[in-house]
Design brief:
The chain is mainly beta. It is built from no helices and 6 strands. A 3-stranded parallel β-sheet has the order 1-3-5, with no helix packed on it. It starts with 12 loop residues before the first strand and ends with a strand.
C-alpha cells in the first residue's frame, strides 16, 4: 500500500520504531533520532546519515 510521504523533516525524533517500508523516500533526514528500529524495506534509501542516532537495528 504505502504512503504519499516523500520527505521527513530534519531533527526528527521517534520514540519507538520508525516504519518506512514501501514508501517513496529516497533518504533519511539529517540528525534523525530513533529509540527503536528503523524499517526501510521497499524504499530506495541507500545510506544512513552519519549524524543519525538509532538505538535499534535498521532492517532493509
Amino acid at each position: 500500500m504505502g504512503t504519499r510521504i516523500t520527505k521527513l523533516p530534519d531533527n526528527l525524533f521517534v520514540k519507538g520504531n520508525l516504519y518506512l517500508n514501501n514508501t517513496k523516500l529516497t533518504k533519511l533526514p539529517n540528525k534523525l533520532m530513533v529509540d527503536g528500529n528503523v524499517y526501510i524495506r521497499g524504499t530506495t534509501i541507500q545510506a544512513i546519515p552519519d549524524d543519525a542516532r538509532i538505538k535499534g537495528t535498521v532492517f532493509n
